[in-house]
């Protein structure tokens, strides 16, 4: 029986997926329900089970290729079973991989160059010198007749590269790191980034956290973090400034009903952004418990697709690394992102006196196509008021 393996739709918003690894090779037997391949979408890695039993007769889409959902990836059949339309499927896959919409580590033009490399003209003496010095002469620009590489060109290349740093290791831009790079590049090309920063007096927030620690730890065996508290403050502020909780699509600003806060998490191989859904409706205790679970799952690679999609605003904390402030890049299709710096004791002027206070810089990067600078400033002012008088936010006397 012939079974087609297709790119699954793992969520309502999923449009394409990247094949990270084929867990079986062509010609190997597979059982229905057995893990067959790993697919990555939206920074979530998922094992895809075999839809049928038989032999993995042909893999149409190779690893590290990104294709739309429902596209045929491979064929499972019996060893001698005839596969109708096989040639058509092969041709379709070839066209798909070479289309501008499909992305792959090795682009179609790169494959053409590898199959049909340009032959460089080089003199016998120059070629001998290049081979003796382990130099790929295709990297050398020839200055001889008709671009011919001559002895002088090789010596000049050797002299030029003598002082260049040597490559120690080559790491392919794949997986989460490639997805992160693609998304951030897209964000920076399309959104008009503007960044503003405001210093926050964290004295009352620090006092409140120390007061809440025993109570929350007793309830959920989890320590409340400053990120948890900022998520709560941010969610309430977004209720008052809904334009920042929006997307820009087809020249339309779409204000979102749900306030879903994404938290940027460093996994060691790239950033993943698990989402706290409807954070404005959750208590600090609920946020603390949920963020702990999401961060643990993100770092162990067990984050489900629905736990890393649907964010409407992202917060990133570089303070834990001792950073005072940064300029975060917007996580598309969102239109703003908030960056937290470290909390540090600094001298500040209070009522005409210099006093020491725990201070933190909060940075807002926003899309100027949607948000004006004055509005962004008022947004940060509102957050500042909540942070410096947090007892009203957290309803604690």
Q: What does the model show?
A:
The chain is of the alpha+beta class and 397 residues long. It has three domains: 3-104, RNA polymerase II/Efflux pump adaptor protein, barrel-sandwich hybrid domain (OB fold (Dihydrolipoamide Acetyltransferase, E2P)); 106-171, E3-binding domain (Dihydrolipoamide Transferase, Irregular), CATH 4.10.320.10; 175-388, Chloramphenicol Acetyltransferase. 31% of the residues lie in helices and 26% in strands. The chain has nine helices and 20 strands. The strands form five sheets. Strands 10, 13, 16, 17, 18, 19 and 20 form a seven-stranded mixed β-sheet that branches. A hairpin with a 2-residue loop joins strand 4 (35-41) and strand 5. The protein is globular. Mean pLDDT is 86; it is low at 102-118.
Radius of gyration: 27 Å
General form: globular
Helix content: 25-40%
CATH fold-level name of the largest domain: Chloramphenicol Acetyltransferase
Helix vs. strand class:
alpha+beta
Mean pLDDT: 86
Instruction: Estimate the strand proportion.
Output: 25-35%
Listing every helix as H and every strand as E from the N terminus to the C terminus, the arrangement reads: EEEEEEEEHEHHHHEHHEEEEEEHEEEEH
Count of structural domains:
3
């Amino acid at each position: 029986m012939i079974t087609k393996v297709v790119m699954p739709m793992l969520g309502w918003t999923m449009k394409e997926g990247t094949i990270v690894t084929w867990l079986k090779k062509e010609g190997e037997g597979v059982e229905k329900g057995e893990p067959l391949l790993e697919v990555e979408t939206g920074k979530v890695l998922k094992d895809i089970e075999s839809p049928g039993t038989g032999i993995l007769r042909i893999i149409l889409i190779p690893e590290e290729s990104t294709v739309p959902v429902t596209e045929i990836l491979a064929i499972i059949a019996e060893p001698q079973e005839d596969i109708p339309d096989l040639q058509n499927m092969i041709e379709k896959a070839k066209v798909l991989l070479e289309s501008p919409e499909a992305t792959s580590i090795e682009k179609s033009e790169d494959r053409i160059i590898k199959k049909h490399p340009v032959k460089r003209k080089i003199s016998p003496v120059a070629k001998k010198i290049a081979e003796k010095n382990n130099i790929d002469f295709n990297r050398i620009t020839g200055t001889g007749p008709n671009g011919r590489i001559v002895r002088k060109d090789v010596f000049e290349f050797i002299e030029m590269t003598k002082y260049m740093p040597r490559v120690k290791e080559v790491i392919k831009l794949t997986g989460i790191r490639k997805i992160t790079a693609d998304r951030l590049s897209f964000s920076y090309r399309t959104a008009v980034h503007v960044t503003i920063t405001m210093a926050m007096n964290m004295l009352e927030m620090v006092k409140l956290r120390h007061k809440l620690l025993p109570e929350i730890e007793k309830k959920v065996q989890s320590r409340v973090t400053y990120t948890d508290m900022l998520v709560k403050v941010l969610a309430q502020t977004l209720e008052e400034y809904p334009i920042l909780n929006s997307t820009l699509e087809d020249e339309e600003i779409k204000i979102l009903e749900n306030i879903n806060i994404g938290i940027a998490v460093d996994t060691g191989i790239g950033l993943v952004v698990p989402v706290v859904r409807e954070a404005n409706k959750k208590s600090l205790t609920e946020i603390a418990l949920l963020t702990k679970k999401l961060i643990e799952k993100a770092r162990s690679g067990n984050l489900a697709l629905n736990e890393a999609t649907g964010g409407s605003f992202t917060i990133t904390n570089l303070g834990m690394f001792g950073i005072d402030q940064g300029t975060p890049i917007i996580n598309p299709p969102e239109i703003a992102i908030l960056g937290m710096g470290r909390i540090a004791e600094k001298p500040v002027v209070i009522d005409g006196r210099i006093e020491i206070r725990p201070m933190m810089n909060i940075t807002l990067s926003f899309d100027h196509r949607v948000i004006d600078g004055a509005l962004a400033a008022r947004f940060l002012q509102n957050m500042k008021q909540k942070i410096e008088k947090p007892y009203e936010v957290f309803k604690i006397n």
